[in-house]
Amino acid sequence: MAGGRARTIKPGILEDEKTALLDDREWRVFVSLWLIADDYGNLRGDPGLIRAQILWAQSVTSEVVGAVIDRLVELGLVARYVVRGQS
Hints:
Blueprint: H1 24-36, H2 47-54, H3 62-74
C-alpha cells in the first residue's frame, strides 16, 4: 500500500454535472487518476501505463483506456499536455 499521501474525495463530487455523466469505467479511471497523480495533479498520460496501474486485474486494452481519457478531456475533467516529448 502506498504511504505518505492521503487523498480524499469530497461528497460534492456526486453533485457535479460533469461527473454525473460518467459511466462506471470512466468514473473508476477519473477517481484513480487522483490516486496516482503527484501532489501537483500531474502524471504520465500513457494509456498503457494508466491501464497497468488502474485496471491491472481486468481485461481492458490500452485503447479502451485511451478512449476513457479522451472522454474525460472532452468533459473538461482532465487536461493533456506534453513535457519533453512525454504526455
